Amino acid sequence: MSSLFPLTQKERENRIVWASVRATLEAFRFKYKRNGKKSKSKWSFFERLLGIFVIVLKIIGLYKLGIENAKRIEVKTLSLVISGLPDHFNGYKILHLSDLHIDAIMGLEDIIIEKIKSLDYDLCVITGDFRKQTTGGFKQILPAIEKLQKAIKATYGTLAILGNHDTFRMVDRLEEFGIRFLVNETVAIEKEGQTIHITGTDDTFYYYSDEAINALENQTDGFKLALSHTSELSDVATKNGYQLYLCGHTHGGQICLPHGIPVIAHQKGGKKFIKGLWQVNGLKGYTNPGVGVSGIPLRYNCPPQIVLISLL
Hints:
Blueprint: H1 9-28, E1 30-32, E2 38-40, H2 43-60, H3 63-71, E3 74-80, E4 93-97, H4 108-116, E5 123-127, H5 142-151, E6 158-161, H6 170-175, E7 179-181, E8 185-191, E9 194-200, H7 210-216, E10 223-227, H8 234-239, E11 244-247, E12 256-257, E13 261-262, E14 276-280, E15 283-287, E16 305-311
Parallel strand pairs: 3-16, 4-5, 5-6, 6-7, 9-10, 10-11, 11-15
Antiparallel strand pairs: 1-2, 4-16, 8-9, 12-13, 14-15
Helix pairs in contact: 4-5
């Protein structure tokens, strides 16, 4: 399926270099951080702890409730007044999906499709984590992602980025469905002679590279929107004149205490970045709690969320 945002020759060349770097990091399961540190993945140890937690939940009778909670997706509508928005984009609507982990709950794509079928939006963006696991294959997600993409009715198409659960090998395959990935790339959307720019970075939680920073340091003027899997590049986006930043990754905590207090959020950017609306100087951002689950297919005090954003 052809994309509304075809790749340039330069982007094709850059992707070859990017894929070779990320392939190496994925193969050796190293997390490369923005501060230069590398560490071996400890996910297997965390999974053992989750296994113990699941046993406890089943004993006290809360396991089934957690599964039910994970399927109760809410639609969050959000109107954002943003300075510098071109007049013809006033009322422009963005459907924001994040952290699908589409193979973690059977039939999740059908629940999402049911929720979005009556929504009106101009553009869909997906901010990473298409599959459940961080390693292995991804063939199991293809039917569900293809079905979901066919149900997304966005005039300006679907833009996506990779998360830390994804592999570089997904990009070419999922782009066949009409999803345009932004791999440290920027695209322009034009409407009645006016333009906004959208930059998408590779995941920086596991797979940081300087190219993510370079992508946000582009010299485009006017309204700029950043898509990144985590909030950790918000300072870079602010310094480079971005007005809006959309991300996910945290699941809002997924397992939360009453009043939505997260037990673990898997991010170090500060509490305000864990979920919902936040601001850094002139940059407005939104951390989507995500529609899917990882680790265990449960949610408590943190409902899954589809976000519909109106730009004003």
